Amino acid sequence: MPEFVTIPALLNLHHTDRALREAREGLENVTRDQRSAEANLAKLDAELAQMEHDLREVQAKIAAEELETSVKVEHIEKMRTALNETKTNKEYSAILVQISAEKALVAEMETKTEGLMAKSQGIKEAMTALTAKRASATETLEQLRQSSAEKVSQFNQRITELQNMRVEAAEKVPAEALKQYERIAQRLPGEAMAPVEYEEGDLENIACGGCFMGLNREDINLIRGRDEIRRCRSCGRILYFAQVTGTGEKSTAK
Ligand SMILES: [Zn+2]
Q1: Quick check: is 253 in a domain?
Q2: Are 197 and 90 within one domain?
Q3: pLDDT tens, 110-152?
Q4: Residue 212 C-alpha to ligand 1 middle, in angstroms?
């Protein structure tokens, strides 16, 4: 029997990678709610900013309407004064007609201003409601941050440990095998290796434990006989023999 170095060293690296993937997923789960709360808060902030913008726009329109109205009202006053200085009936009734037309315009403008004021009031009320919602969303986020802080730090610590372990594990793998492993690991994080699946006493039914594609006897003999890597022709994973359970169940050790 040749001495096997490559596969045991690779398996050690593979187990570290699996643990790393688990730790990263754990961290992801812990922070998921937090990230969704952050997104919710950002959405509320954007809505509030839009409302502030709308409010400023309406207020500017109100100011413009009020100015125009006061100019018209002043003009009407002037015409009333002019009315007393008219010399003919024709002149008098012409000014009266104009006064009445301008008064109608002023009434129209006042209605428009009232509408704008109602709109401004509506925006202000919506902003008050949204501000309350924002306060409660901020509180929720703060609670999530506090409750997950410890778990987050534990996962980060574990990830750092595993990353150091990974460097050590990778150093023990022969260079060429490591190159192949890293290529597969990039595509299949934590899944670069797969056990050969078979039932004891039934060596006709052998499959890759990663993609379940059937393997032939030749593959098996090569994996067993040489200290080199053998990859599944279908999924590309590096194959290895897990310990036979001896119970006739499928070998699932990974
Ligand atoms: Zn496969």
Answers
A1: no
A2: no
A3: 999 999 999 999 999 999 999 999 999 999 999 999 999 999 9
A4: 6
What is the Å distance from ligand 1's center to 213 Cα? 6
Q: What percent of the chain has pLDDT over 70?
A: 94
Total residue count of the chain as it appears in this document: 254
Distance 149 CA to ligand 1 centre (A): 39
Q: How many domains does the chain have?
A: 2
CATH number at residue 54: 1.10.287.1490
Closest CA to 22 of 170, 204, 158: 158
**How many whole angstroms separate alpha carbon 30 and alpha carbon 18?**
18
- Residues around ion ligand 1, judged by CB within 5 A, are 208, 210-211, 213, 232, 234-235
Considering the entire predicted model, what is its pTM? 0.63
Per the prediction, the chain carries an average pLDDT of 91
- Alpha carbon of 125 to ligand 1 centroid (Å): 62
User: Contact at 8 Å (CB) between 180 and 163?
Assistant: no
